[in-house]
Structure formats: structure tokens, C-alpha cells
Amino acid sequence: MIGTEIELPVADGVLAAVDFGGHGPGVLLVHGSGHNAAAWADVASLLTGECRPVAVDLRGHGRTRLGSAGPEQYWRDLGDALAVLAWDRPVLVGHSTGGYAVTAATAAGLAEPAALCVVDGVVLDDRDASLAAHDAMRTADALEHLRAAFRYGWEADDDRMRAHVEQCVREAGDDWLNAGARPGLVREVTLRSFLRRGDRWVRRPAVEEIAAVTAVSPAADVLPAVDVYGRLTCPLTIVLPSGGFHAARRDEVRAVVDAAPGRRLIDIDANHNVPMTRPADLAAIILGLVRDRDTTAAGNAG
């Protein structure tokens, strides 16, 4: 993967990240659950001519060794990471769970972005429904399903790990998430999902990480519910794939967009895994936000 491995200090350690280089405004790229910074490689390669993209590994993912002890740490970390990067008015892009992460960090006042881009990562339920849904994610059956479907927490020796990676590459074309992704990118993302521990490799995230981040408190000020968008004042672009998690709730997404000026809904013919399967289209959307930022800045300077 093209890029420089960096570390971004947070409250209790560091986040692993990839700085893809380039010049201009900062663009923070935040992956979804089960993915890692490598998922953004093809998007980032199309951005570096006009901006500087950096992708993070969230807690429990990729090469970040920190795990979550509570449901908010993973998105609160983004405030620390942005402080280290010291960017002026960055563009924040999040896919799936990463879409909520950038939204929550901004809603909590931990980030002051020029714009948010949320890729199939909206939260549409009210607070009560969201709490019930998160409780359902933490049941033994739900966690076992994740373990079985994605091998979360699986331990393997070198040979078994590499055999699994190559199997994922071979089967990518028929996989509901990876169909359409570049095989080499599938390999990079899958390899990065394993962390070395002693003489074994561990597939990340473990189900314990999922249990921790879904233990949302009813008393939380910022909660993964639709009212979080009322706290945003920056421009918001929502990318909604036709085969994504929220395609059937388009009217609700439209209502979020229509609730405030400076918001856009962009429909895209894709499955949920837009960063890996439609990188050129997503990069074009991000570059549009970068150019809008520059135009706004130039207008304010004038």
C-alpha cells in the first residue's frame, strides 16, 4: 500500500494511521467496522493531487493496539487525532460506523470540519429505538453471528492466516461486500485486519470490541440517533448506495438532508462497500468538497 505509516497520539496511547501524502487541505478518512485504513488506499490515490488524505485505524482495528473500554472512545479519539494533525478546516469522511464517528466527533465539538461526508453511515432511529437496536447487537447470538461470518477474534498461525487472506481474494467477486473491489486491495485490507500477538495472528476486531462500542448509555449526551444531526452546523454530504444498508430508508435520509441548508444527498449505484468498490466516484465527491472548501475560504478572504 502506498503511504507512510504514522502514529497519532490519543488519551491512552496511539492510533495507527496511513498518511498518503499530497498537499493542500487535510482529509481524514475513517473506515467502518471490520475494515481498516487500507480500505481507503484506492480513494486516497486519487486525492493527493489536491489534498492530503490520512486514514486511521480505529480502536480494535488494523494496527491500532488499543481496544475500547466504552462506546464513545473510538469517535472521541478523532478529536485528539485532528489536534495532532493541526489541520485548518479539514474535510472528514466516514464510511459506515466511521460515518457516525465523524458525525459524533463534530456534534460533540471535538472537530471543526469544513465539511462532513458520510458514506452509508447515517443513524436514523430515535433515541429509544437506537438503544434497543444496540442492545440487540450485544446479545450472545448476535456476537456469535459476527464471529462466524467474519472470523472476528479468530486466531491463526502464519500459514492459516495467509491461506485465509488468499481465499478472501479468490472469493471477492462473489462476496456481498467485496464484489467489484480490486483484488489487491482486498488482500491489503484483509492482511491489515490481522494483528500479531506472540506466535499467532488475531483477526480484528474481536467481538469484545463490538460489545464495548455498542454498550451505549441512555444518559449519553451524543448518541447514535437521528437527533445528532440537529447539532451539526457544517455542510453535510450523505452518499447513499443503492445496495447499501440504508437504501430502503431513503425518505428518512432525505429528511435529514432537507432539515438544514448546506446538506446534499448523493445517490450512487453501489453496494455498501463504496470506498473499495467505487473509489473513483467517491474520490470525485470528496474532491468536490475540497474545492468547495477552497472556494469558501477564498470568498471569506476577499
Give an overview in words:
Helix 9 (250-258) links the parallel strand 10 and strand 11 (263-271). This protein is an alpha/beta fold. The radius of gyration is 18 Å and the shape is globular. It has one domain: Alpha/Beta hydrolase fold, catalytic domain (Rossmann fold). Helix 2 (73-85) crosses helix 3. Helices cover 39% and strands 20% of the residues. The chain has an eight-stranded mixed β-sheet with strand order 1-2-4-3-5-6-10-11, with helices on both faces. A three-stranded antiparallel β-sheet has the order 7-9-8.
Give descriptors for this structure.
single chain, 302 residues, alpha/beta, Rossmann fold, three-stranded antiparallel sheet, 11 strands, 39% helix, 20% strand
**Structure summary, number of beta strands:** 11
List the domain count as a whole number: 1
Largest sheet entry? 8 strands, mixed
Query: What is the global morphology?
Result: globular
CATH architecture: 3-Layer(aba) Sandwich
The assigned structural class equals alpha/beta
How far apart, in Å, are the first and last alpha carbons? 40 Å
Walk across the major sheet and give the strand order.
1-2-4-3-5-6-10-11
Name of the CATH homologous superfamily:
Alpha/Beta hydrolase fold, catalytic domain
Provide the CATH top-level class.
Alpha Beta
CATH topology: Rossmann fold
Radius of gyration from CA coordinates:
18 Å
Question: Which stretches of 5+ consecutive residues score pLDDT under 50?
Answer: none
Helix content: 25-40%
Q: How much of the polypeptide forms β-strand, as a percent range? A: 15-25%
Order of helices and strands: EEEHEHEHEHHEHHEEHEHEHH
Mean pLDDT: 96
How many individual helices?
Answer: 11
